[in-house]
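Open question from group meeting: does this chain pack into something compact, or does most of it stay loose? Before anyone orders reagents, we agreed to write out a predicted structure and look at it together. Recording both the input and the output here so the notebook holds the full record.
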Amino acid sequence: MTIYNVYIFDREGQCLYYDEWFRTKQSGLAPIQEYKLVFGMMLSMKSFVDRLATNDSNQTVNFYKTSAYKMTFLESATGIKIILNTDPNATGIRDLLHKIYQAYTETANSAAKLAIFASNPPNENFLKSRVRDIVMKHPAYV
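C-alpha cells returned:
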C-alpha cells in the first residue's frame, strides 16, 4: 500500500498545503492548475451526489476509487478540505485524514497566536514536518 500525495484547501479552493511521496506520474500541469482541477473534481463529485440523492438527508462523498488510485476526501465544518491520494487497497485512511486535519488546525492556531503575540513569524516548515511525520508512521506508507 502506498500514499501518493495530499492537498489541503480552504473553503474557496485555495491550496494551503501540498506534499507528495511516491508519485511516479506527474500531471503535466502547472501546480496551480492541478490544484484547481483536483478541487473542482471534488466539488463536482459532491454536486453529483447531491443531485442524485434518493432522499433529502445530507449526502457525503468519502472517496473516489479507480484501479490505480483512491482519492479520499475529508471536509471540516470550517470548510477546510483535505484530499489524500493512495493505493486503492490502502486502509485506515479516514483516521489518517483526521490526524492530518488535527495537525493542520493545531499549527494554524499556533501560527495565529505567534503572529499576534510575537514579532517572529511562525516556521513555515512546521506543518510540513508534522504532516510528513504523521504520514510516514501510517501503515499505508511504503
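Observations to bring back to the group:
Strands lie at 3-9, 15-20, 63-65, 70-75, 81-86.
The two ends are 6 Å apart (CA to CA).
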